[in-house]
Structures are given as structure tokens and as C-alpha cells.
Fold these 2 entries.
Entry 1:
Amino acid sequence: MPYHEFEASKCIPERKQHAVIKGPGEDLSHALPKGYLNTIPGSISERGCAYCGAKHVIGTPMKDVIHISHGPVGCTYDTWQTKRYISDNNNFQLKYTFATDVKEKHIVFGAEPLLKKNIHEAFDAFPEIKRMTIYQTCATALIGDDIDAIAQEVMEERPDVDIFVCNSPGFAGPSQSGGHHKINIAWINQKVGTVEPEITSDYVINYVGEYNIQGDQEVMLDFFNRMGIQVLSTFTGNGSYDGLRAMHRAHLNVLECARSAEYICDELRARYGIPRLDIDGFGFEPLSGSLRKIGLFFGIEDRAEAIIAEETAKWKPQLDWYKERLKGKRVCLWPGGSKLWHWAHVIEEEMGLKVVSVYTKFGHQGDMEKGISRCSEGALAIDDPNELEGLEAIEMLKPDVIFTGKRPGEVAKKAGVPYLNAHGYHNGPYKGYEGWVRFARDIYNAIYSPMHQLSNLDISKDEIPTDNGFLTRKMLSDATLPPEVVNDPILKQYDGKLDPIPDLRAKTYPVFPKKEPAPVAAE
């Protein structure tokens, strides 16, 4: 077993089994780190908790809901507005967050009266919102507050409202993935089957495990609409509370993020006989294959093929342009969850990048299995890394760019490596054909940014370049520029003639002369 031991973690011997380098010819039986286990004390884990997995990942994207956390205000603040789950009701669920703000006195004397008071206040403050989700936290779970009873009392007092209770305190699982499971099962137990929808198509699906990050869902809905498919509900991006209560009437569950939402798909199959079909909206080939599978299920393959042909003809030349310039660039794929296997193979095949490391902070063994199987030899796979291990990996692997979350991304920037936000995106959406080109553009801009190159200069000793174009201008000068670039007003000053610019690292560019300090006159 090719375990990798970090210098920073030698004082914790167990951590050695949580990092593996994939060797030549090795399969998963030889190159799989231990994962989804309780955090090792002293390892300074950066995992999210089960409450975070329930509220932040899955619950909050529901748009017409008051999301209230029953616990200390810090729990709520930590899960507020850290992802771009946009919605078409003016982003209500992003603009507001609600908490009972439990204090020490409530821990001693009980917080149920406080919860009931807060529920009524929230509904009074937003009378147009008639739906609510209450999330349990560690503090109120430990003192035994009966949230279900309080919710039932309020619904009896206010017959026009409906409340969903999610008992997923932070300690409910090894990581936030435990919270995914909790809210999936709670939703189907409490709410699915309580509303009857209007069916308008012969082809009806639930789009599951899709959270509408920067509009990802809208891209996919456009494809489904063009195929004549009715999307009954989206679990849970831009999803309406009552729409999600009608999931039992779909003909097919189309599953995107298997790690966070496969549980409800499996229960819908067991209870209502609705089949599950896993798809992938990232990358030209995975997306095309997904549309073909859906078309095959409903017998409308021709509609899928028409979309694939149109979108590929429109966007593939642009993707190829970026692939030529990203070829061989080294990537640490550290997104935390399912994107490590959604992206691992396709960014190598369609963008020319080389994945040198994958990691997951909260995924299951299945995530790591799929991620490692799609990586090349020599890739470093890490389960639940901490900041020191991440910095050590950066120094060892010397990546050109890192795909990760905002917090570890800022650490990477301090180490001189650009990052892209794999959770909330930089300039998304990234799904769909155009979205995949947009992702490639963000990678290109991150790697070749003149500002990033300047940031690695030591102004106390390095020569300072005076040219503003650097490698980007050189790259454009070597290419056949499309009309929209040639006619760009910013580039018109060059009249389409861009001089090749030397590599910044070659240090053959013009420099400001260094001035010697003036001699000090002797007294």
C-alpha cells in the first residue's frame, strides 16, 4: 500500500493511512486511503458538521422557505450565504437567515418557549412566506428540546403554514455527509406524497442533487425543456417547498450529485417504484452521454441528439482553443465532495490538464474510489486533510492551479498558487456546454493572470517587468484571433498586431534601472 506520510502529521501515526499515492498499475485495492471515519483527535480537521450538511448543502436552496436554526447564532452564521444558491424569488433564502440565538440560560432552563416565540415572529415578519424548515443543532439536541412538538403546536395555531423539522445536530455523523442522509430521509418521511401536482407532459422527472449554484440548474432545465420533459421538482436548487412534496409522481429520478441525494432517490424507488438514473452535467462527453440516457429512457433519443449536435458545434471550437493552452498544467482537485470524480477524468481529457492530487473533506469511500480510479498514476489522494498537510502537498506537487473552497483557496493564494472556487464558482454556471467553456476560461485566466505572476515577484530583489501583456498577449499573438477579439476596443489599439511577449520567468524583459543609494556625506 503506497501510503504517504506528511511531515506535519508524523506526530499522529493514524494519519498515514489517510493519504495514498497512486502507483503504476495499481487498482483501488492498493491505492485507497481510509475515509469517512471519525476525525482523529489533534488532526485539526476542517470538516463541516452534519448540521452544516443538512442546512447549508441541501436545505437552504429551497427558495420559498424560512430556514431557522434552533441553537446558538454561530451555527446559523457559519451556514449563511457561503454558496451561490440563486433563486427566482429575489434570492429570499440567501438574503435572510434565522436563528433562535440560544444562550446559556436556555441550555439550563430549556429553549422550547424561545423556539415557539421565534417561529411566530418569523412568520409575522414575512407574512407572504408560509413554509418553514427548523434545523436542530448540537446544543438543543443535547438538552432534549422537542422540536417536532413545537412545530405541530404552531401549525395548529396557524393552519395556513407548514413546517418541516430536520433533526440533524452536528454530531449526527462523522462529517457533513451524515447530514445529507438525515435530511433526505426526513423529507421523504414527513413531506413527500402530501401534495398532488399537475402533470403536463408524458415525460416527467425529478431533478435530484442539483442546487442551482450560479444558475447550473437553469442550464440543465433548458435542455430538458427542449426535449419536452416536465421537471416536477428540483431537489433542492430553486425548489419550492410544495413542489418537493410532490416528488412521488415523477416517472424518473435524474440524479446529479450522488453523494448528497442518492438516499432520497433510493427511497423513492423502494416506496413508489420510481427508477433512478445517474447523470453528469460537467464536460461535453459526460453531458452528451447523460442526455442520451434520458432520451433512451423515454424513447426520444432524436431530441437529445439534436441538442448535442447544436451545442457541440457551437462551443467545441472554443473549448479546443483553451485546451491547447492548458495542456499539461498541473491541478490539485480539492473540492471536498462529488466534484472530485465528476471532474477528475474529464478535465484531463477535454482540457488537457493533469490532476496531481484529489482530496475529500466529507465524502464517503465511494467518492474516493471513483476519484482515484479516474486519476493518472502519481496522483496524491488525501482524506480529511488539514491546512498544514495542504501546504505541504502544494510545496511537493507544485500545482499551477487549485480547485477548492474559499477558505483553503485563500491559503493557496498565500502560497503563491491561484485557485478557483469549486463550491460556489468564480464565474459560473459551469454545467452545460457553454458552462464548460466558461470553466476553461476561468482556469486559463487564473493560470495566466499577469497579476498572479506579479504577485510571485519579490520587489526587494526581482526585476520589475514594464510590459502589461505578459504571456496572455503572447498567446493571443500566436493564435488566429476570432473577429470578436480583433474588434474588441481594448485590443484595437494594437491593430490586430500583437508583439510576442517573452515568458515572465525568463527575465529578459525590459526593466526599470535599479538606482544605487546616494552616498552619504561624511560629517
Note: The longest strand covers residues 204-210.
Entry 2:
Amino acid sequence: MAAKAVRQGEAHKLIADMPVERLREATNGQLRINALTSAGLSNVQQVLDQGARILALPGVGETTGTRMLGAARSIWQTTIDEMPVRIDIKNRSAATTDLLRALRAWDSARSIKSGTSVLAAAESLRPVLTSLDRETSHVVVIPGTRSVEDLYAAISGLDRGTSLLSGGGGDLGNGDPWDDFLSRPADYYAMLSELGFLSDDEDKSRGDLSAEIVEAVRALKLETAHLKASLRGYQSFGARFAIVQRKVILGDEMGLGKTVESLAVLTHLRTKGSHHFLVVCPAAVVTNWVREVGTKSDLRAHRLHGPRRDSSLTSWIRNGGVAVTTYDSLGWLEGQVPDKAKPACLILDEAHYIKNPDAQRTRRSLGLIRRSDRAVLLTGTPLENRIEEFRNLIGYLRPDLTVSATEFSPRQFRKQVAPAYLRRNQEDVLTELPALVEVDEWMPLSASDEKHYRAAVMEGNFMAMRQAALRSGARSEKMQRLLDIVEEAEENERRVLVFSHFRDVLDDVASILPGKVFGPLTGSVPAAKRQAMVDEFSRAPHGAVLVAQIVAGGVGLNIQAASVVVICEPQLKPTTEWQAIARSRRMGQLDSVQVHRLLSEDGVDRRITEILARKSGLFAEFARVSETADSAPEAFDISDAKVAREIVASERERLLS
């Protein structure tokens, strides 16, 4: 009922803005509406409000009036049927507050019902407790197969469940439900989707899959007893696709929840009797994976990274769960996992890290994939520079697939990889995602900028050329524009992410910006400290700025607190920028996201943007579900060194002439 009230409220707003001309369109032009406009009725809602009184209007009559009302009611019902439930943070209506309260209660009650491990722990202690003498005051419990941490977690979970069931309140009744929604909006939208209040386009959820595979995916019942998160329809489809096809790439655009899709796979397999799972990821996202396993499932996470990795490995082998390690730790892990702990499923996050078949981490990862019955590669950027890289990833998983990079058109290429590759894009499946506003801020070089730039060109220093327009402090045109953007963001109650490839640029930005500045977040910052920095930034007041190296801050972190993104210079790969933007604009973002690219009119920025456009086109043809292109999938490879030589040479010629 709460969702119905919100949906009706949204429908009323839409109908009230709908001109009466829509009634004529709904009857294929057969209905004359002059009598309505003459009576001062300008929108469909006013017609509905009039009801039977329409029949008495001059020039209407019973037949025409009945048709008018029928058309208006038909439009109303269609609007209701197709209206997704939206949560407007700027209009906290009583109906929406009731809906959030109901969703929170449902989520809490469901967590009790699904707490099988907690109930098992309670049952295992029951015989001991019932046999105790009444005068016993203390009991010491020594875990056998369970760890002490597991026992404490079970007791804590049992306490929370008992409080909820006994009417003690807990999360069900206390506090403002809007606070809980704002802290985890993606979870609420997932619950709305699970309950059928958000519509999914099934055709867009299935990508380029064949009808045979789609039917097999639909036939699979996904077991979610060990999953503590709701799934969107497309996420459930992705998890079932991975289970049915066994070894796949989930290439969903960043921000669509590939992590929870993977956890749905692991929890399904746990229900079927499997115990050991392995996640391999960059060091920067180990902490995030450990968090997600703990909050989104009742599986236990083991951090096989850092000073305690040996004891964690022992615990994982003995007790099972999800081991989380890094690509660089695979050498240490080799030979230490006995057959009894062989992972039932392998997850490789940011899988474009293994696109080079000659790299040592790729060879070690490939060994794991070949020894595993199931493997899921996660990447929002399967194709960065060359078609060959994409084909390598497919070949690791399915060497039986014949995939050519030179003979077939892009559409044929996508059909060939479809048995092992599924991608969905944000605009296709997230109907509630706020707008993305991208602005290319072209500006001239200041006199100081020009001096830095000329010196870099004469030295043949490509990296210095890219930084030149931001190395003059307040005398830099880009820096002045950045100051304006941050000031405007504070006035509009927004937080700002500033990305650059260069540490020196970030230091300059951090030193000159007013207000609260966090960072620089760089590759040298330990993973745990990165997450702590993001958490502190998320709690900071509006106008706060987080400055981050784009190759570090653009991978693995969720920074939804920011809704203004500034990229200080164009990158050499379009996927680098896409990743950075997706840190903020992802499922659960409530504000529109503004992206400002700071670009110099003269020099290196213009040349790099031209290269970016060519690479973006390549990605769209082969890795993104898009319209068919006529060109053949020829390998397109332009290395950073080649880019640098070409641009330096052309800029020398331009400046010297």
C-alpha cells in the first residue's frame, strides 16, 4: 500500500502536467477537445476531477463526454501501470516516508528469517544450556569447528533478531527512515526492484545472448538463502548466466553492481554444498571486497593479504568462506591450497589487469582459471586499446570459442563472444539513475601556462606538456576554473572529486583549494587508508574536495558522496575516464552528476581528445551493446610512447613555425 501511494502521487503529478490534447491522441484524433479548453480545462487531471460533470459542459453531450472520460481514465491507468516508484530526496512526503519505513521493516524481518547460520549456532548450544544446573552463573564455550569470531557474530545476530521479534524496536521503529535510505540507497532501490516496483527491460538485461542460453538462464532457480541483499532483475539474470555458463566475463558498465552479482553466484553455490571460494583483485579493493562479503552475505571473508595472511589462509582452508587476495599475492598462494579447499568458484575483479598474456600475474591467473570448474571475470572495461586484449580474456575462459579479430564485423564478433560475455549499460537498466551532465571546459593558456608548455615541448617531455596548464598555481587558467567549480559546488550543496594522472598536479590543487580538502589519494596510499579517506570525505560538509590520482581513485572505490567530478587533463584511454566518473555515478547515486573536463585550446589536450574519440568508437563497436557498425574489427593499437612521439613532433613544428 505504501508503494502504491507513492506511485499514485507521482502519476498525479504527471497527469496534471499532461495537456488535454493527449485525449485526442489517445483516440487517434477522433475526439474534439475545443469544449474542454473553452471551459478552462487544460490538463488530463482536471478532466478526471470533473468526472460526470463533463457531460454537462456546453458542446460536449453524453457520447462525447463519455469518450473523454474513458480516454482520460485509460491514460491514468497506463500511467499508473508504467510508473516506477521514485524516491525524491527533495520532497520527503509522508507517503514516501511510510514506504521507506515499510521497506526497512521488511528488510529487517527478512534478515532474521534468512539467518540460518545464527539459528544453527543457537541450536548447537541448546543441549548444553538445557542441561545446566539452575545455580550455574557462568558458562565457557570453546568453539570446535567454528572460530571465536563466528561465535561472537552469531550471538550478536541472535540478540538483534530477538530484540526485533520481541518488539524491542531495533531498526524497525527507531530513527528517521530517510537516514537509513541515504546511507544505502542502492539497497532500497534493489528492494523496490525485487518487489516489482521498478521495471526492468528484459531484452536489455540479456545482451546478445542466444535464445537457447536465455532459456537455460531463465530455467535456473537462484538460491539466495545466504545472500543478505536484494537483487535487481538484471543482477539476478547476470548471476544465473554465470552459473549456467560456468566460466564467463561479466562486463556490466561500472556502477551496476557486479560485486553483488558475484556474491549471488557464491551464495547459490554455498546452498548447493560448496564451501571454498576465491576472489582475486587489485590491492586497492581488498578492503571493499571484505566489507561487501560481510554486509551482503553470511559467508565469512578471509583477507589473504597483508601481515596476517598466513593465519587467514589457515582459517580459510579449515572453515571455508571467501578468500580475498591480490594478483601480486598469487605467487605466494601457489601450492598452499590443498585439494579439500579447492575453490568452487573463482572471481577475478578488474580483470583487464590480466589482458597481457605474457605478464606473470596473467600466467598465474590463467593457471587458476584452468584448474577451476567455475570462474567469473569482472570488468567494466574489457577493451581498452586493442581487440586482441578482449579476445585474450575470452580465450582464457573459453578456448573452444572461435573468435576472429580480423574477419568478422562487430556484430558477428559480439555474437561469437556472447556465450562467455554479458554486458549491460547504465542507461538501459537503471531507470532511476540521475542525469549525467558532461561539460568540456575549453580555455586558453595563460602567459605562465604558455611558458611552461613551450619549455616542455622544447625538451620533448610529453608528460610535462600534459601538466603545463596546471603548474602555475593561481595564474593558471585551469586552476582558476577549478576554483570557480568548487565554489559553485559548495553553494549548490555538492561535494567534488578532482582527478589527475599526475601527483604534482594533485599537490598543487590540494595546496591552493580553499575549504576542506582530502588527499591526495594515490597509488602509494595503503588500501585500508584509501577507504578511510573516502569514508571521511563522505561525512564532510558540502564543498569538500577529494583529490585523487585517476589510476588509483578511479578503481574499486565507491564515492557516491560526490556529485561533481573534475578531470584536470584528458587521459590516454577513454576507459580511464569512464572508470573515474563511475566511482561517483553508480547505482544508489541520488544527485545528478556533473563532469567537468578541463581542456586547453592550444596544444596537447586537443590532440589527445582526438585519439580518445577514436578509441571510444572502437569500444562501442566491439565491447558495448550498440548499433551494428559496418567496419571490420581490425586491431587498433596506439601505445603511449607512439602517442607522445607524434604529439611532441607536431607541437614543435607548430610552435617553431
Note: The longest helix spans residues 61-82.
